[in-house]
Amino acid sequence: MKKxxxxxxxxxxxxxFAQANKYTIEGSxxxxxxxxxxxxxxxxxxxxxxxxxxxxxGKFQFSGTVEGDPLYAxxxxxxxxxxxxxxxxxxxxxxxxxxxxxxxxxxxKAKIAGTKTNDDxxxxxxxxxxxxxxxxxxxxxxxxxxxxxxxxxxxxxxNNKAEKAIEKQEAETNKQFIKExxxxxxxxxxxxxxxxxxxxxxIAPLYDGLSAxxxxxxxxxxxxxxxxxxKAVALGAAAPEFAEADTSGKMVSLSSFRGKxxxxxxxxxxxxxxxxxxxxxxxxxxxxxxxxxxxxxVSLDRPGAKAKWLAAIHKDGLNWTQVSDLNYWxxxxxxxxxxxxxxxxxxxxxxGKIIAKNLRGDDLEDKLxxxxxxx
Length: 375
Hints:
By secondary structure, the chain is of the alpha+beta class. Helices cover 41% and strands 24% of the residues. It is built from twelve helices and 15 strands. It has helices at residues 7-17, 116-144, 147-150, 153-180, 185-195, 200-208, 212-215, 218-232, 272-288, 306-316, 332-336, 363-372, and strands at 20-29, 37-44, 47-54, 59-67, 71-78, 89-94, 97-103, 111-113, 243-245, 251-253, 261-267, 293-299, 321-323, 344-348, 354-357. Strands 13-12-11-14-15 form a five-stranded mixed sheet, covered by helices on one side. Helix 10 (306-316) links the parallel strand 12 and strand 13.
């Protein structure tokens, strides 16, 4: 699009995004009748909203309005109609227009169409399907392994290598979709996924390449506001200083670890992937704690959940300094470090500079071996 287009015209799509939009979901799922129900669940202003409708000869309908951006929602099917069934669900984006959902016996296999964001999401999911299949195959391989294989370091390294290859493919798929669809709301979704493990130097150009209208959506603005924080924790940057209370209530500052390599490790007792990753972190800590290396755990546990936090520390053997303000996703330190997903970590050198991030599996030990030599 040429730059000479009038500003008023260029800003029109942003205005359209900001309208109160009426959506209608017209669905068809087999030939189900009462008591079968379809449930819808979504989040508005941090509050979960839920509704349901009875199926009549397989037909169902939802309608309502959404303010601003397309709104992510989950549809769930229960043939008995006695509660939400998270085993059979389909995701949709609520936005202006008629959204069609067409399926046979499983809602999860239904086809979604009818509005731009949902059509774009179908294309996006199709591109990710080989990646999801690869993850499923890897998980099946792990479960099928014998107990002896599961305890093998060689088996772990092989799986970690395979997982990293899949993660790289996922990142490239997200990157390609964003570049090819600079005006699609789904590109912001893809950018969120890409940004989890990428560095600022890779993230910023992708955001800059988005359309002006997309940047003016609520999600686009919020991501733009995060960019300075992502820059502040980029590789080579000085790690932002913070002080937080430890398990006994004593304030601990990041700068108190100056002179050592310190891994700032974001996790939580409720986070399954974090708990699964903890044995790798424990192994690396026990191997290199005699060197100038330590760990500072930062928990995103919920308000009032200190007992669960302490229990997880004890159960997982996390024998290093742990801090938390017990504010869940409103954690001040997580916000300072632009953390939007866990587990996530930052390796900081003795001078306070960030030298690595997202070191999981064997990556942490490999990096420490690079720094301290084989021990």
